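Example complex used in Figure S2.
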Amino acid sequence: MRDREIDEILKEAAQAPHDVETALLDRIAGSIGSSLRPVRPLPPAWLLVGGLVLICAAVALAGAARLGLYGIQRLSVLERALIFPALGILLWLAATAFVGEMIPGSRRRVAPGFLLVAGSLALLAVFAVLFHDYRTDRFVSQGLACLTAGLLHAIPAAFASWLLLRRGFAVNSVAAAMAAGTLAGLAGLTMLELHCPNFQALHVMLWHTAVMPLSATVGGILARRAN
Amino acid sequence: MIPDSDLQMLMARYQRGDLAAATALIHRLSPQLHRFFVVQFASRVHADDLLQETWLRIHQARHTYRAGEPVLPWLYAIARHIRVDHYRKALRAASREERLEEMPEMAAVLPAGGGRTPDLKTLLAPLPESQREVIEMLKVEGMSLEEVARATSSSVGSVKQKVHRAYEKLRERLTGMGLSTGRTGGQS
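Predicted assembly (415 residues):
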């Protein structure tokens, strides 16, 4: 049997009339009509994406400025030229994914789960290429301090991002929360790159990068519990 | 099939608070939404409930439709959300009341033999849910691959793969039922 034959069979089966009771439709129209008011459509997606990126950049900059911009001062030009554009691209991708998840029927350019895994691997690769000091002085204590600071900055970024997109409608709340968590985690990670002067490879690769997956996981878990 | 430009115009008027446009949308789109729910193994009564719930959610989320975008992917994305939500709730209730193993086997619905074309629900019954919804949107509602991908939050490649797998299964079943006799056509 060929595909065209299956098409014909499906078309034939679909031609059977499928009516819905008029009374039901009138009831639906009646219930909608009672609360019908003009609504303001959401702004264009590019504007929302831009707003999210700005929010995250502002949170990262404000946090790093408050704690001290020691990291960026110690980074070489090459390190800056690789780390910050990579973070910028990931921020833009995460913001696009979040906006897409909050508007039904949007084109999905990148799935939040894939973005999280690919983004984490990309950052690990960038850090592995740039940092070659493999000492582990005060690995856990300094690491935990960075992880905590990163996550603490992810919270306001997540909150402000949610405020911007609060009028959206998530058809998959777990995916939307994961995208939001990834975005907020990136804000925390950017703050750490601006602030933290510890360039030991394992410190940056483990404790800094971990902010993004942890933040996304927390978002996903919270959304799943809310369901 | 209703041209999407008409639907876009009606959606724009609905967003401006036009009751006539809202009523027109409900009357035009409800039959296909209702069939979407019935084909996904909801009874007619359940489908009625899901339809009402979908319109309520559409009403709440109508501001998320953006002018110039295709209406059907937006609409079906919301309808899918309602169906998945309903399925999840039913599953939770079922797990409280009975063991899942005792639930009826869906694939057993398709009758074997005979040359008459079965109805759509029976025809698509052997397919997994993800393939069934894609076939319905693409082949029954006439949506494009891009629109189905948008409605299901997936990529065009993933939709194509699901259609291919669904056709393999349908081919096997339909050949077994002897439905290919007397039909002509080529590989599309």
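Chain B touches chain A through 69 residues (CB under 8 Å). The mean pLDDT of chain B is 82.
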